[in-house]
């Protein structure tokens, strides 16, 4: 009888950016990997976002993951042939209350490499001749931009082309138990199973979804064109963004929240994050609005979209833009947990985010999970052969 090393088999349920990031990390660690997804191609949250890899905006416990994600994203892009643009992010402040937030965070270590810009420089970065002289900005240089519609498909292609990897589209998963996944194509066996199904987690593990208060956050986004902007440039965040990202948290942001509650109830009503990214085809991805529910109605509110369009038009200083597309995004939302990380059964891991930053943090989360897994499941096992 002889023995030879055989890599353990990992099944990953969900081919979004988090699932594919786990797949790449597992392949790098020496495992056999099968990724399953119910859809025939990528159509979920991972293609419906801005493509903004905003590492600098995350503070607290998420800052370390964000810093780990950046070099991993650069490596993923190189391998999979994903166009990656070193655009940076312009955080735009349009009044004294918003400027106070930037002044406060400039003194923190998180923004040590950021550069303050005046109104003239901010206007230049926005591609317009001038802007209100009360405006100012903070240029965060390390942030990146990808086209989300291209990135996820390219990464799935890389995994599927790997000698030890495959991605199976159009395969529904009905049940997960230790060592076995029940699918629409019959049962599949694995040494370990990782579930990364986002807002659909409750379909397989309702008790975990309930424990974390997991619901759905629906957002409205648009793709536009304007005559004077073409090609990549910095992503743009605004005062509403300062209320959503943890790196800006502090007394000044708390005052900004009260200020916007009073001065812009329309933006607060739709829980707006007024921001944009610029892409190589000359279009801009803009948004977005947020509504949390247990089950998302499919209907888009045109008034909400008009509010976003008016804000972006004011920021860009241009006439009404051409709207190319509108869509609804949905991601998992937890009021208590940014990251849902559970081990419901032996040999089964569950990983999703309770907030909409999976595109940025996905590669770091995948590496973290697989690194922990190798302590209990070494990359090779020795199986006997007669």
UniProtKB/TrEMBL annotation:
GO terms for cellular component: cytoplasm. InterPro entries: FAD-dep_OxRdtase (IPR006076), FAD-dependent_OxRdtase_HpnW (IPR017741), FAD/NAD-bd_sf (IPR036188). Signal peptide: none annotated. The keyword RNA-binding does not apply. It holds the Pfam family DAO. One of its GO terms (molecular function) is oxidoreductase activity. It comes from the Bacteria. Belongs to the DadA oxidoreductase family. Residues 10-367 form the FAD dependent oxidoreductase domain. Its cofactor is FAD. This is TIGR03364 family FAD-dependent oxidoreductase. It comes from Mycetocola lacteus. Keywords: Flavoprotein, Oxidoreductase.
């Amino acid at each position: 009888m002889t023995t030879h090393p055989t890599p353990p088999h990992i099944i990953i349920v969900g081919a979004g950016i988090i699932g594919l990031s786990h797949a790449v990390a597992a392949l790098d660690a020496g495992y056999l990997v099968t990724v399953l997804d119910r859809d025939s191609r990528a159509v979920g949250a991972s293609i419906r976002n801005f493509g903004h890899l905003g590492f600098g905006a995350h503070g607290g416990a998420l800052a370390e993951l964000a810093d780990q994600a950046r070099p991993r994203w650069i490596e993923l892009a190189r391998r999979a042939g994903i166009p990656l643009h070193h655009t940076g992010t312009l955080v735009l402040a349009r009044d004294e209350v918003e400027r106070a937030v930037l002044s406060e965070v400039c003194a923190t270590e998180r923004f040590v490499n950021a550069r303050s810009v005046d109104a003239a420089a901010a206007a230049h970065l926005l591609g317009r001749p001038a802007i209100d002289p009360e405006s100012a900005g903070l240029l965060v240089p390390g942030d990146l931009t990808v086209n989300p519609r291209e990135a996820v498909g390219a990464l799935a292609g890389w995994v599927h082309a790997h000698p030890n990897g495959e991605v199976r589209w159009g395969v529904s998963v009905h049940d997960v138990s230790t060592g076995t996944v029940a699918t629409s194509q019959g049962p599949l066996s694995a040494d370990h199973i990782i579930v990364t199904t986002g807002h659909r987690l409750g379909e397989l593990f309702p008790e975990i979804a309930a424990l974390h208060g997991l619901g759905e956050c629906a957002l409205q986004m648009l793709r536009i064109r304007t005559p004077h902007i073409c090609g990549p440039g910095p992503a743009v965040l605004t005062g509403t963004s300062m209320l959503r990202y943890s790196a800006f948290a502090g007394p000044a942001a708390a005052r900004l929240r009260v200020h916007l509650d009073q001065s812009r109830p329309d933006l607060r009503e739709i829980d707006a994050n007024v921001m944009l990214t610029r892409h190589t085809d000359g279009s801009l991805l803009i948004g977005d609005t947020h509504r949390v529910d247990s089950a998302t109605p499919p209907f888009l509110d045109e008034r909400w979209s008009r509010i976003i369009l008016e804000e972006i038009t004011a920021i860009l200083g241009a006439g009404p833009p051409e709207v190319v597309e509108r869509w609804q995004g949905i991601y998992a939302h937890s009021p208590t947990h940014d990251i849902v990380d559970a081990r419901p059964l032996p040999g089964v891991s569950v990983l999703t985010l309770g907030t909409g930053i999976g595109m940025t943090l996905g590669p770091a989360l995948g590496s973290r999970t697989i690194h922990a897994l190798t302590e209990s499941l070494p990359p090779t096992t020795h199986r006997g052969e007669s």
